[in-house]
Amino acid sequence: MNWTYALTQHILVPRTECKLIIVGETVEGQPFCHEDRVFLEEADLDAFSVSLEFELVNPLDHLQRISFIEFSFQDQGIVYYSFVSFKELITENSSCVLKLLSPQELYSYQNRRHHRRPLPSSTPITCRVVGARQRFYDETPLFEGTMLEISRSGTSMITGQRLVQSLMLEISFSLPDVQEPITLSGEVRSSIPLSSESFRVGIEFHDVPPQILDLIDIYCEQTSS
Fold first, then answer.
1. Mean pLDDT of all residues belonging to the chain
2. In CA terms, which of 79, 125, 132, 203 is 20 to 30 Å from 63?
3. Contacts within 8 Å (CB) and 24+ apart, 137-145
């Protein structure tokens, strides 16, 4: 995945939870290695910034020299990472903001078993909440969204409906150039606000019939060639 795609598809948005691994040397000449959860503040094609929060002591106070920084985040169960260059550090009372140079490419931590393919920007999806944590209950009203991408393991969408992790959805959609409409079940794995009225939702498919998996595989393989 390249950096531009991550931004334009709203995979990386403000307050996305990320992780930094910083390796270098302390002012005492000792090895420095720090891993911390951080939150994305802002990002563009050239640079991005993350905030690191702490309670008592800034863990970077004794850092003299940086050898490398690994930046990573998780999307739909896949860890993406890249090595990034330091630009600036701004320290406040109980937090600091690191400004870093944007990488060109983001690499997956594990080899992906399935193709994930972008969908046309106007691809609609219809959903309803049918339960939570893979347990099914009474159905709720339908709502709509716009699909971003798909693989045989899941999809992501933009919707105006606020959702939370572990909700079970019934979703219906049609793939471009595929006549047969698709209806299946999925679990919400992530929900990131893009604004007060828009959310990017990652969905993991569950119990998909083999014939539907075949349809999705054929579509992904054809569009990847």
1. 86
2. 79
3. 139/170, 145/201
